[in-house]
Amino acid sequence: MRDHIPVVVQGRGRRARRAGLVGVLWAAAELTVTVGVVVLLLVVHQVWWTNRQAAAAAREQVRSLERDWGRSERDPGSEWLSAGPSASPSAAVSSASADASASAASAAPAPRPSGRAAGAGAAAGAYAVLRIPRLGLVVPVAQGIDKRSVLDKGYAGQYPGTAGPGERGNFALAGHRNTHGEPFRYINRLRAGDELIVDLRGRRYTYVVGKVLGETAERDTGVIAPVPRSVVKPEYGYGEPGAYITLTTCTPEYSSKYRLVVWGTLRP
């Protein structure tokens, strides 16, 4: 009797290994597609949906401010009217900001504290409206540059410690260039002579664009100084006291590496 010798069929082993490898690759491909779809949805939410939400909320805030200003002007006993036309812009800012906050609180939840330093400035509502005719832009202005409670709402935020609208010094503003309403997306298109109009309850201040700094460092604090001049590129800026406006935003687009700066001076 012959001994039975087992025969190993190598082809089947190779096919099994190949099938296992194909299964792993297929699972990896499915995972990659799933992750890609999730990332795409997040991008769509960040770039498109947040823009729609913030822009709509900002437009409503402008309407709310204008309605509130209309009521105040019709009310002869209002605090602002009793202050008279000689009231300072700072006093008008404080009063308008308080009124706007109360008006906004009835329409939307008050922002939660962000936990950032008080110097970052968190505002419950806007107090002024910035209009840039060249860009067709109308955006509310709030005190502070906190992202969650100001900038991410599609507002322009006033740097803490800078001058009020119409005052001597530098009325300095920040705004998103991309996402969250992106109000300052196209300020790179502004040219010398363009108007920057600031409405503050019962008052209008018109600034005229004078200079544009296309790119500077994030920490170039000179651009928002009372007499604005870049400390990174000193050839850009002003050398005499006056009433200035500064618009700042990130550059290049979809990056926060540098800052784009537009300066203007108050029209007499």
Mean of all residue-level pLDDT scores: 79
SSE succession: HHHEEEEEEEE
CATH-derived topology: Sortase, Chain: A
The CATH architecture would be Beta Barrel
Which CATH class is shown?
Mainly Beta
As residue ranges, the low-confidence spans are 76-88, 94-123
Compute the separation of the termini in Å: 119 Å
Largest β sheet strand count, sense and barrel closure: 8 strands, mixed, barrel
CATH homologous superfamily, by name? Answer: Sortase
How large is the share of residues in beta strands? 15-25%
The residue fraction in helices comes out at 25-40%
Shape: elongated
Summing up helix and strand content along with how strands pair, one would put the structural category as: alpha+beta
Task: Please give a handful of descriptors for the protein shown.
eight-stranded mixed beta barrel; Sortase, Chain: A; 268 residues; single chain
Please give the structural blueprint.
Blueprint: H1 10-74, H2 79-83, H3 89-107, E1 126-132, E2 137-143, E3 156-158, E4 169-174, E5 195-200, E6 203-217, E7 243-251, E8 258-266
Parallel strand pairs: 2-3, 4-7
Antiparallel strand pairs: 1-2, 1-5, 3-4, 5-6, 6-8, 7-8
Helix pairs in contact: 1-3
